[in-house]
Request: fold
Amino acid sequence: VQLVESGGGLVQAGGSLRLSCAASGSIFSIRRMGWYRQAPGKQRELAADITNGGSTNYADSVKGRFTISRDNAKNTVYLQMNSLRPEDTAVYYCNTVPMVLFDWGQGTQVTVSS
Reply:
């Protein structure tokens, strides 16, 4: 399965973006998918994840501002990001959780200006 992330861009603080992660194969059987992010000079971290039943988990830093969702029929995972902050600036990737089963995609850059 190949993962292709899109939807990033440059936005002012307080703005919104919606990221998409399209998988080349079925994700229906993948129990948990997540959005990871890697800021410059920092380790990649898990920002949000969702089960195939729709249960979600969020890092404290994004809770209340980000919403993860998935469409198994379209093999796509989404991340709606609201009230963006400069500290959300990072490259965003999707993959399986908790173990990374697929090769990393190219990611999508999110830059939040103050």
Notes: The longest strand covers residues 17-23. Strands lie at 3-6, 9-12, 17-23, 32-38, 45-51, 56-58, 66-71, 76-81, 90-96, 108-113.
